[in-house]
Amino acid sequence: MLHFGKVAAAFTVAATLFASTALAQTVLKSSDTHPDGYPTVEGVKYFGELIKERTEGRYEVEVYHSAQLGEEKDTIEQVRSGVLELNRVSMAPFNGTVKESIVPALPYLFRSEEHMHKVMDGPIGDQIKTAFEGAGLVVLAFYDAGSRSFYNRTKPINSVDDMKGLKFRVIQSDIFVDMVAALGANATPMPYGEVYSSIETGVIDGAENNFPSYDTAKHYEVAKHYSLDEHTILPEVFVMNKAAFDQLTPEDQEIFRQAGKDSVAKQRELWAAKVSESRKIVEEAGAQITTPDKQGFIDAMEPVYAKHVTDPVLQKMVDDVKAVQ
To answer: Where is the signal peptide (predicted)?
Structure first.
């Protein structure tokens, strides 16, 4: 027993998983904060189906939805350290680690979801993927998360003036905190799972997210006013621990990369359907949806860009994004 204990201690989690030839199948764990059936969860499940099929069952992916393995902040650390092999997470929490991830998180940068797709599917997306490898992660896919807008329990938001003094939950990102401050409101970063009760009890006035999240987390029950300002069209990122990826053979690495690409089309199709379904659900439940004049919101973002786009590399990326037609 002592001998086996020493051997076990000598291996990292990733190496143990991939070095074993005695096992007919290697099971990879993937985390997601969203519930079962959510488009990102289903996108990763589809990725897993492709992996199982194309490796003839040598690899299988187990998807842990509904934050079973922790909230995003926790699972990001788990996948970087190799405790988890795979993770689907918002890109914004990486802003302090991967500077190139700042660009897609900038408010009002993308003109539409189609514009975002062209950017992330092209050279700029490849540049961001390469940057993630420096953080010990391999990007397998960029998934849709639609446009994020503000919602609250207090009143309709039709202009920047209506934002003043309200408290909004934001994801853990300095850009999001500064965006809310620039609009005259107060930002409160907190885990996604705490938002419902915090709005219900008045700890915060509201939050910001897309229609599917507003629906599936039932936030429309406690925050009836949804303002379609569409401040960010931030893609989600599906990543793999780089040490685990490097243990794959070159042939299997290509299978994993291609399966990631192929899962994107499936996820986008599911996402578009879910957005329509969720908007209908929340409207029928009594949510009040307004469309403010965005120009005032856009004008207020000047200090956010001035603070976060100081690096020449990032400035060029911003200019390149705007040039994509």
So the answer is: 1-24
Predicted pLDDT at 34: 92
Q: Reading across the β-sheet that carries 26-31, which strands appear in turn?
A: 59-64, 26-31, 86-90, 236-241, 137-143
DSSP H helical segments within 134-169, as ranges?
Answer: none
C-beta neighbour count of 99 within 10 angstroms: 17
Q: 67 and 185 share a domain?
A: no
Question: Buried b / exposed e across 114-140, counting CB within 10 Å, b at 16+?
Answer: ebbbbbbeeebbeebbebbeeebbbbb
Domain with 124, as residue range(s), is 2-145+234-278
Locate 20 and state its tokens: 């074993």
Q: Is the confidence at residue 22, as pLDDT, over 90?
A: no
109 and 224 inside one domain = no
pLDDT attached to residue 24: 56
- Residue 135 above 50 pLDDT? yes
Contact of 76 with 87, CB cutoff 8 Å: yes
Phi and psi at 26, nearest 5°, equal -110, 125
DSSP 216-276: HTTGGGT--EEEEEEEE-PPEEEEEEHHHHHTS-HHHHHHHHHHHHHHHHHHHHHHHHHHH
Which range (90-99, 156-165, 179-188) has the least confidence?
90-99
Tally of domains within the chain = 2
Q: Supply the CATH number for residue 181's domain.
A: 3.40.190.170
180 and 100 in a common domain: no
DSSP state at residue 157: -
Same domain, 299 and 259: no
- What count of Cα atoms within 13 Å lies in the side-chain half-sphere of residue 278? 23
Residues 228 and 270 reside in one and the same domain:
no
**Which pTM does this prediction carry?**
0.83
| Domain match, 122 and 257 both | yes
The pLDDT value given to residue 96: 87
Pairing relation of β-strands 206-209 and 137-143? Answer: unpaired
Together in a domain, 60 and 180: no
Of 212, 253, 258, give the one whose Cα is nearest residue 236.
212
